Amino acid sequence: LSLRQDVIAGFLYAILILVVFHPVVDLIDNFNLTYKYAPLIIITFEMSAVEKVEEQLASLRIAKRSVPSEEPAYLLDIDLSKPAQSENSRFVAVSCSSKSIRVFNRETLHFLREYSSHPGILSGVRFAHGCDSVVFSACSDGTVKCWDVRSAMQKPVQTFSGYPSNVFISFDINSSDLIVCAGTEKVDQDTFLVFWDARGITDCASAAKEPLGVYSESHNDDITKICFHPTEPNLVVSGSTDGLVNVFDINKDNEDDALTSTCNSDSSVSFIGWSGKDYKQVYCLTHDEGFCWWDMAQLDTEEPITLLHVLDVRDSVCAENHSLQYLVGGLYHEKAEKLFLIGGTSTGNIHLISCGSDGLSLVGTLCGGHSATVRSFCWNLADESLLTGGEDAQLLLWKPGAVERSLTKKASLKVASSVQKRVRVHNSSLKSRKK
């Protein structure tokens, strides 16, 4: 009798397990979540999304290499044309240390054309958001030029001229393609953020456009980086060798009102960007390989706005046999809602670093691509691919799990170039003027 009772009890227990947990499994499989199980399942989903993205980044492999140019040069900045409707982006633009812009096919990396009529050093390339054939470049001669990459003509479709003393070393265009902004080197104690109206860029190139106005009081040294908000065209952040990272609302009537926040990196700023849900966070990298990360959503609260401040990322990220020697920039992955940094070594290895409020961690290292320092990159969220350019004059396309089919061998020697990273002594005594 006792044995029979045990068997019956065990049978009833098994039925109970099936009855209780089987519907839960069905609910999970069908994403028909009830309030009872939703918190646990949502947390699990968020963790797996981040882990999946980190696995994809770590699995990046070389899919394509550009054919070496007859005149090798450092590849200083990269941008992808914005896709029209549901189409993929068609073009890649690269600014080079040879004072030229090179345009490639986005999928094949086949060279299309080159614009070399620049009298000075280039400080970047940016495609328009609403037209995938229009690309902008800023030059140290005090101009921002607009090019139509469908045309091989060496004449820009529009030129934006600055003031006589302006030497532009940074620039960006806002998400609505209405405003262009460029940052200057310090000349005679003056540094400027210069703004232009970018409307009608393809109408007439006969006359250079004059500036709408300038901001001149918020920085006191070279303005090294400018970055408009990805979705709010009135917001722009600027970084300088004075250590300050300023956020402006350009809809305001004057510079003082426009300056919504000032954060101090305590070092010379080399890179800035937006991150977080709805892009309410700002981060920066410094020329001495530091990292600062702030939450602008906390400006009007009692909570601290600093999410993380790392004085030297090289000391906090363990890269085993491939030491981290420098930082290139950052990318915010919208799907995973995760910020990543990109760094590397002088031999061309690329480190992918995950950012969290609790610190930084190495996701993976991309080897076998570049043979010298990586200077530039561009992330394409549409297909999870990465474009990189370096001092070896190579433009590489990386995709998750790709197999390189090209027979082109990577360059074995570093390309000579007169362009070197400029670092100025900053005033570390400056303090944040606003929270």
Automatic annotation (TrEMBL):
Residue spans of the WD repeats: 115-151, 216-258, 367-399
SUPFAM superfamilies assigned to the protein according to its UniProt record, in alphabetical order: WD40 repeat-like (SSF50978)
Record InterPro entries: WD40/YVTN_repeat-like_dom_sf (IPR015943), WD40_repeat_dom_sf (IPR036322), WD40_rpt (IPR001680), WDR89 (IPR039328)
Keywords tagged on the record: Membrane, Repeat, Transmembrane, Transmembrane helix, WD repeat
Annotated TM spans: 7-25
Stored PANTHER family: WD REPEAT-CONTAINING PROTEIN 89
Protein name from the UniProt record: WD repeat-containing protein 89
